[in-house]
Write the structure tokens for this entry.
Amino acid sequence: MPSSDWECFRELVLHDHALQQQLRETPDWTNFLALVLRLGAERGFRFTAADVEHAMQAARRAWLERWL
Amino acid sequence: MSALPPDGWMPIRVYRQDTQIMVDWCAFDWQRAVEPFFDQAVDRELMHPFNALFRAQTSLDTLVARQSSAYIPPPSGFVFHMSRCGSTLVTRMLQMAPHTRVAVEPGSISMLLRLTADRSDEERVALLRALLSAFGRASSADAPPRYFFKFDAWDTCDLPLIRRAFPDTPWMFLYRDPLEVLVSQMALPSGTLLSRFDVGARLGLDPATAFGMSPEELCARLLGMCCRVALENLDEHAVLVDYCQLHNQLFDLLARAFDITWTPEDMRHARRATRFHAKQPTELFTDDTDRKRRMATEAMSAAVERWTRGPYDELVAAHRNRDSYKLEQAT
């Protein structure tokens, strides 16, 4: 399961336009993941690449299964 | 979350979660939305890792509450249609008009109409206002857009409700000979047509009756209902468009219906696009009227004559009796 720090960071991003802009400018997954980890760490959140990858898989699965 | 996502985020899905109706949102770049349908643009947006990871969800009640406190101009135009009648071409042209955004058959609207079918008209009107207005939210840097909707063909059945939500918004109804439309639908049925339960509900039929009907009859009845609903709701905001008019009069019709001013460059750009198939923009457009008529079976012809021809002929007659039609023929 994603760490609660990841969930807190996600909530922060949803309320922070500047962070959103920064993340949207990075479409490549590898760079995006590095940016997410850096932005999270700079703000004191402790989550790992595995947490983010897990959250990504869950989000994609939820979207694909939306009609089920 | 209790607030709405930032301006520039769009509703991409409406769904039920337990007892609540929810709205799914993602950041959406209208300038990149060149796909024939809104939901295809959403699928592309969700390829971006940000959008995949940071979708937001709100309840529909939150949307209504928040939206009512912010003024968003009403939509600039609605496109209703019988399906397979050139409506995608119309929206392609609208997309090329200056400063417009066109939401083409967003699944969220059809879903909202379906999920709220048991609610009062007043409540549904408020929900429609909130959801449709969300498509008109400007990104913070932009002026408010002129925004248009093309609805799923079968949402024409809910035209009165949609018009009640936005009574001053001009609307267009596109029609084509119903036999040609039916042939196309039988060859490649639209998603909605595949669900007999939904079609039956739209036609006011019980599920057993709907499941016992031939696909030709179900579709012909639905097409007849679309024509009937358009006919019964004609008013000063309505523009009727015959498929046959599209090639010569499309720009004039759009300009008149939706108050669009084309620059010569926009028009040149848009004219070039009319040479291509609207849903498959890499293929050249060819008129398939004769081919469709040759493909019509006896069952198709019989269904159209019984369920569609009457309201369709009345609609055509109403169109030809309008002052605007005489003007269209003179230009």
Observations:
- Chain A has a mean pLDDT of 91.
- The interface with chain B takes residues 10-11, 13-15, 17, 20, 23-24, 26-27, 29, 32-33, 36, 52, 55-56, 59-60, 63, 66 of chain A (CB under 8 Å).
